[in-house]
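Reader question, answered in our methods column.
A reader sent in the components of a multi-part assembly and asked whether the whole thing could be modeled at once rather than chain by chain. We filled in our standard form and ran it. Here is what they sent:
COMPLEX SIZE: three components
ENTRIES:
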Amino acid sequence: MTHALAIARRDLAERTSVFIAAAVLAVVPFILTLVPGMTSFSRTDIITTMGTLLAVGFTLGLALVLGVTMIGRDLSEKRMSFYFSKPIAAPAIWFGKLTAAVLSLAICFTVLFVPSYFAGTTSWQKSWNVDLPIAFAIIGTVALALLLFGHLFGTMFRSKSPLVALDVVLMVVTGLALAGIIRPLLEGFAVDLTVRVAFALGGAVLLILLACGAWQLSKGRADRKQNHVALSRFVWSSMAIVLAIGGAFTAWVVSASPSDLQKPEVSQPDQGTWSFIYGKAKHRMDYNALFAYDLATGDSIRINGIRSWWSSGFSRDGKHVVYVKLPDFRSGTGELYLMPLQAGAKGEPLHIPVTRGGAYTFSDDSTRLGLIDADGIVSVYDLASRKALVSAKIPMSNTANRRRFFFASPDVVRVYVQTPQYGSLKLTEFAVEIYELDLRTRALAHTGTYRCMTKNFGLTVSNDGTRALTVERDDTGISHANVIDARTGQLIAPAPAASMMKVTLLADGSVAALTNDGSDEWSLNIHGADGSDRTTPLGKLQKAYFVRQLEGGRIVIAGRGAKDWSMIVADYAHGTILRREENAHAASFGYEQWYGSDPRRSVAAADQPIAMTDSDRALYAWQPLTGAKKKLLQF
Amino acid sequence: MFDINATNAAPIWRQIEEGMRRMIALGALKPGDTVPSVRDLAQQLRVNPNTVARAYQRLTEHGVFAVRRGEGTFVADEPSQPKRSERNEVLRDASVRYASSAIAIGASLDDAVDELNTSYDKLVREHRRKV
Amino acid sequence: MNQAETPAIRIAGMTVRYGRRVAVDAASLEVPRGSVYALLGRNGAGKSSLVRCALGQQRASSGSAEILGQDSWKHRTHLMERIGVVAEEADAPPEMRVQQLADFHARLYSRWDGKAFDSRLDRFGISKQPRYGDLSKGQKKQVSLALALATAPDLIVLDDPTLGLDVVARKSLFEEVIADLADRGTTIFLTTHDLAGVEAIADRVAIMNGGRIVLDEELETLKARFRRIRFSAQPLALEAASFRTALVRSWGAGTEAIVSNYDDLTFERLRSSATVQSADVSAMSLEEIFIAVAGEGANS
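And here is the structure of the entire assembly that came back:
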């Protein structure tokens, strides 16, 4: 310890010329204010700005120089033997010189910074707009890093040993490994976690560099090449350990499974047993994971993609999905992946570039894929050959609020675009323009228009694509619903008014609505295409919405009672309630009907499980007709 | 006091020993005289003190020097001459060499003896002058 | 072995390689305590590499070095308390003033003797003000020696101490070393080209050639067994005489041979053999022995 101080003292004594230079430079900002032409600026501003720039620039430059020379100069000028022929331990030499270097930097910075700072404290705060302790911490860390990296690179490159080639290779490998540790975290949108991991890695690297000199001098002593060898061994071995730990940590983070999610979103299409589960993973800060999950078997497939309403799409039969992978969470373009929903499947890149905000829909036989991008260009791809068959730009659609589309037939894509109507005095006028893109004629035809009452507008199309139900809420809060021709937009008949989640088109063309006429007694109304009305009472509820239509004239409704949610299976053909499942909430809210790309509902087979959660946050696969519950996951 | 020739065939300690004996024989060093310390002589001659110490030890063992505790090394009151047998041995070694040189150049015994006489006198005179 | 018997330096099987070049090849030697040991060798023979590894300043490729009974690589820090080193190249920081160097050493060594340092500087005629880098080559060596001696070491290692010194400085350096040796029984290990100065003070001598130790013995016995013989016959005559020759060449009409196992009797037999008419023998200086062993035409 005392030896280290003796060396520190010795090194510091050598640097007096540097301190004098700093003292001289410290005067420059003050002199600068006397230069003609500078008087147009505020005197204190010049002093504080220049003073800080000089202090930081000089200190950082000096840090680099000291880093390279602190040990490097003695080694290359063959003067290390002076220290090694004394009873001084090698670590004492290193830490003594390091201490002297750090103190030199601190002294120079203080000498340069303090006078100009105190010349105008408030002015400094205004110009630089950062807290002093934070500024010092940043400058100090950068200076220390420059010092230590200067030593590292100086030793490696000046030893004239061919080992430096290996060092360079390992530097590249380390860089790639670090990227490999950070990247998966960013792919999971874990910004906070990434920042912490980056700090931890940075801290580990600084610690390694702080210790490396002691090791290097212990093993390499007065010989320059042996110093290099010892340094490289220590640095790369330590880095390997740090990278292994980092890699293991990232691997653990990435290995999140569906049961690790807390408060996940479940998104289940109408057909098939697979759904998406997405959410933050437990103990992993803000790391998000997306899974395709088979409710029948519990199999899950991890998807490294984005989960949001616009970025994925299930095929109609629930057997395929497309999803978007962005290179990082800020970029606007990504790649589209197709994945069959079966255990062990992998996503295949389709090599179709896609943009944020695009939409995707499958043809009913899952042979073709339709895309609409943010600019309103609709394209159709053949999935087997991955070739684009046709594309066309929808007019005015870059200002559109919403675009929904589906394959009216394997060769015809129908697009609904809600656009504001310019040219009218009120900007609250909207219309849904209906287009059809025919693959056979390669032509885009405008087939109809529906004038909306308001901007708040929802559209759902019948299974066969002939009829559509529009639901709107006007400025006074009253809902209006209409049945229209799905191709031309012409009004067919008004429908019972209800808000969006509470009304749907049934397979036979009738409209189902959940109403409560003011009290807490709710009923299911079926308004037939022939104008007939049937009502089935549902009981006392606070809220209700449609979950799913089942074949055979049945419908599943989610209703919230006084305490819990329950699921009600109603036979609307006979007007009866088949089952009430207490403490059951549809995991998927059914937004797809109104917000998904495909505006149609489909009728599910009666034996398909429905994803359901209870008040204990367990996920079940629930059979609506038999009431069988299989517990899948506990969140 | 005397010169040491490091390149000489004779080891340095022997040269010192012989030098001391010569000086005593010539009267340059008298019984009871102080003798330079090992350190001083070594520095003067620029030779290894161990070598000087070795010579001194031999001289002490043979009764030529005497050590008085706390006072140093002196020439013994009655410095003993080398024993007859030792003396003859030394003479024999030296004479073999001398005789070989003489024979090698083809000198006669008389010439060799004459030269020997001249050298002996010369050396004695020179040493007397030095002291 | 008690403390007085362990060698001051013991090197065993030391090999030093720089890439493919072998600088020191399986060298072994022992320096007895209190002795003056001279390691001789031509430029590039490997002496400095050997010394650096012996002092624990550099790692040898194989072999071991012990100083005062302890491994010099492992215990360097502790051993240097008792060892004074005068390096071949001046390695003190050039900006340090002589006084600052003295203060630095005073802080590091418990046995520092400031007065001894001052008086040696006086004798060398060097003041304490100048920067080390401004001194002449010889003065730098003298300052280094004064610093090393003032730490009262048990062993002094001098790597080519007279290089760059003029005749006067060389003499005074040896005087200081000898005085210290006489006063304190210090062990002296030195490497040098200056054979004349060393001849008078070395107890043991080793010769290094091409990285190998080719000779390691007491100076006295070395000088006793090497002779230069000139005789008036062909070299054939030597074979009968069972002399080991280091060098044989023709000299005039006869032969000159450097013999490494001389004794008088064998010489007389040679001289009296029929073919030899005359024969003459002379002693060799250390310098001449060195040239015979490690010089251009030497057969090693």
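What stands out: The interface with chain C takes residues 4, 6-9, 11-12, 38-39, 42-43, 45-51, 96, 100-101, 103-105 of chain B (CB under 8 Å). The longest strand of chain B covers residues 65-68.
Send us your own complexes using the same form.
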